[in-house]
Amino acid sequence: MATAAIRMKDSLLSSSSSSPETDVTQMITPSNIDNVLIQELNELSLNDREKTMEEIHGAHAQTVAQHEQPDKIQESLRQMRLEVQNTPPINKQAFEIAIAKDPRYVDHDKFWIRFLRAEEYDPRKAANRMMSFLEFNREFFGEHVLTRPVCQRDLSPAAIRTMTEEGMFQILPFRDNSGRRIAVFLGVGEVGMSFPDIEKQRTSMYIYQCLSNDEQTQRLGFVLIVVMHTQGPWLIVQPNAEAMRKTFVTFFEKVPVRSSAIHVCFPDTPVCHALKSSLLFLMSKKDRSRTRFHLGSPTECRYSLKSFGIPGECVPFSVGPNARDEMKSHQQWCQLQQSKEELLYKDTDDPSRSCFEMESFVVECPQNEDCLFGKGRAIMKHPGTLAMHNILKNRMDCWNNASFKEKNGLTWEVVNEILSGDGRFLRQDPCHGWFVPVEDEVARQKVSIAFRDMAKRIRKRSQRQQEMKTAQEKIIHSVASKSSRKSQIPALRDPEQLLSNSCRAYSTSDSEASDGGMCSFLFDRTKVSSNRKGQNGFENRG
């Protein structure tokens, strides 16, 4: 297998030696991988190097916010439209066909701006990416998809079944610590080995397009995790290295969203070490600088991913029917996309317009700042919900001492604080599974209920603590009374010292040796508070 992997690498090098897209300055081999990466990193300027490190760790939100000012967005859109106008007609055939058929989709600002964000507001690169994306859709799906988004019904039944059951490419239902969506490539599995490459590309492009519908993902990019633990055979038996390279170029240079970080998880085997150089060769120079490798078992890779702000314990490392638990969230995602598309095409007048409007009231994956209303562990443990609970806890003293009018104002303060921090108040749709924003007044009422529930929990906790303290005092006095009669120990003012001395004297008595276990039991306060029957029995003996 290692020999086959090296042959595949040599095939990649020979087939791409004359390709103009190749920007590798020297041959990448297993022995000089680190040297090539260091050389390319040193060629970057100081600002570019810092920017790359910030993107890998998700600390580039402030840099992105500088370009998100309305006047800068409009100026970038104007320059991008000029670039498209100056493009030769031979290079924008798909765009002109779309404009001639129905311009409402491709001429919408929200369609253009996702390509600007994907190219970090470079108008020329954004124009080329948009036209390449339309050419890809025209080639792989047909001209009828140029006036609307690609949907599941544009895929073949076999492709939909493979996407749902195999789960070779998944969008995880949560974000990393910086708020980026996470995509995981797990290989094609046994069924996908014989699946046509064109169907794989169609399915992957559909998933990337769904990923680009999230506005925060457009701005921050997404995190791509490539799991090599299940896809070694897929890489080794590739008969056409150029087709494999074309797939990578298509994904990373034509999709309407960019990857801000790439993490590759390898098992520590000789085969995967040989494939590492081949995988790096398939990437562009920019992608290589944003790639990090993690070697070891799935558990070791999960721990390594945590250092980059990725909840590694939730990342799947297996596919197919044997990974039903890990496939559950992916199948729910596929069903959610189907429900969105069915709702979209109910607007028979203009489904292209509805797709942009749906983004504002249908939330597939809440942001980390969003506060969720509902039941379930996932909702209660969401970062935005936990942040709201901390805000309520800090204001609980004011709530307990406030009048009705003051409580009303206090709830509005909490609502405004969350909204001013780019958060939203969302509730889960019970029928479809997605989240929808709620009115501000509804959010205020929910916050008021959360205040009351938290106050009740605090009172109950205080009551339980008081009951536990009372029970402990009864036990102390009971032991003191029995100890004083048995060993004539004088009364002590410190209850803890009294209890300790009483039990020590109690354990030294031969006639009461069996009660030594009872004294050790008394030191476990949790068991004492929960076993009231045992306490009463001991008191009766006294």
Low-confidence stretches: 1-26, 509-542
Oligomer: single chain
What's the CATH H-level homologous superfamily of one domain? Answer: CRAL-TRIO lipid binding domain
CATH topology of one domain: Phosphatidylinositol Transfer Protein Sec14p
Mean residue pLDDT? 79
CATH architecture of one domain: 3-Layer(aba) Sandwich
- What is the CATH C-level name of one domain? Alpha Beta
Q: What would you call the structural class?
A: alpha/beta
From the N-terminal CA to the C-terminal CA, the straight-line distance is 78 Å
- Quick one: overall form? globular
Tell me what the structure shows.
With 542 residues, the chain is an alpha/beta fold. Among the domains are: 2-55 and 151-344, 3-Layer(aba) Sandwich (Phosphatidylinositol Transfer Protein Sec14p); 458-541, no CATH class. The protein is built from 29 helices and 8 strands. It has helices at 2-15, 33-43, 46-56, 61-67, 70-85, 93-101, 103-106, 109-118, 123-140, 157-165, 189-192, 197-211, 215-220, 232-236, 241-254, 270-282, 285-289, 298-306, 324-344, 351-361, 377-380, 383-394, 396-400, 404-420, 440-487, 495-508, 516-523, 525-530, 532-541; strands at residues 169-175, 181-185, 222-227, 259-266, 291-295, 371-373, 425-428, 435-437. The strands form 2 sheets. A 5-stranded mixed beta sheet has the order 1-2-3-4-5. The protein has a 3-stranded mixed beta sheet with strand order 6-7-8. A hairpin with a 5-residue loop joins strand 1 (169-175) and strand 2 (181-185). The protein is globular. Mean pLDDT is 79; it is low at 1-26 and 509-542.
